[in-house]
Structure to design on (200 residues):
């Protein structure tokens, strides 16, 4: 019975994940806005204005189970798992913070909301907060993003920033845009906040 229940839970999480990512990959879905400041050698400098995010963290075990659980919690919130039973439109991308002691995942909430408009999550582990406005270095890459590939691209961006003389602030983030079954035109970003004064 316990095995059956586990299978059902996993199936629900996966279905939720696939439903969200499929919809989020559509051109109809709002994407987080940013201003492209400049193209550098191999990466972009972007300015991200502050946005409202819903975030959740879990103990890190080095596998995808926690990521699926985090996704399920956040998806439940926007699908009506809140005090007002209110559904919130899906957006892209999904953020996964790197280099931390925990698995942290964040959804960017639609730009039409302010903090006072948002329903309170039923899940007390979900936090609503503003993102950190500022300049970010971003490395785009395509294809499927395994943990190994993400790590390679993160190191690639670190080397590019070092050569260009940029100083980073805080942790790197992986941004995913596509449903798992989408094969072509897959989009991924590695981003990190940088110190930038418009002089480089």
């Amino acid at each position: 019975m316990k095995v059956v229940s586990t299978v059902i839970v996993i199936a629900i999480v996966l279905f939720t994940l696939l439903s969200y990512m499929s919809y989020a990959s559509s051109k109809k879905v709002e994407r987080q806005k940013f201003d492209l400041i400049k193209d550098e050698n191999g990466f972009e400098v972007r300015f991200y204005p502050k946005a409202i995010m819903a975030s959740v963290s879990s103990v890190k075990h080095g596998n995808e189970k926690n990521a699926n659980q985090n996704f399920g919690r956040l998806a439940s919130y926007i699908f009506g798992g809140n005090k007002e039973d209110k559904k919130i439109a899906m957006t892209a991308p999904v953020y996964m913070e790197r280099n931390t002691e925990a698995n942290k995942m964040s959804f960017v909430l639609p730009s039409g909301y302010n903090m006072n408009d948002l329903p309170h999550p039923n899940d007390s582990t979900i936090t609503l907060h503003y993102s950190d406005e500022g300049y970010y270095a971003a490395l785009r890459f395509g294809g499927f993003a395994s943990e190994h590939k993400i790590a390679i691209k993160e190191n690639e961006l670190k080397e590019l920033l070092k050569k260009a003389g940029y100083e980073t602030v805080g942790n790197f983030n992986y941004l995913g845009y596509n449903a798992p079954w989408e094969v072509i035109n897959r989009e991924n970003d590695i981003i990190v906040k940088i110190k930038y004064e418009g002089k480089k």
Q: What stands out?
A: The chain has one domain: 2-194. The two ends are 62 Å apart (CA to CA). The chain has a mean pLDDT of 87.
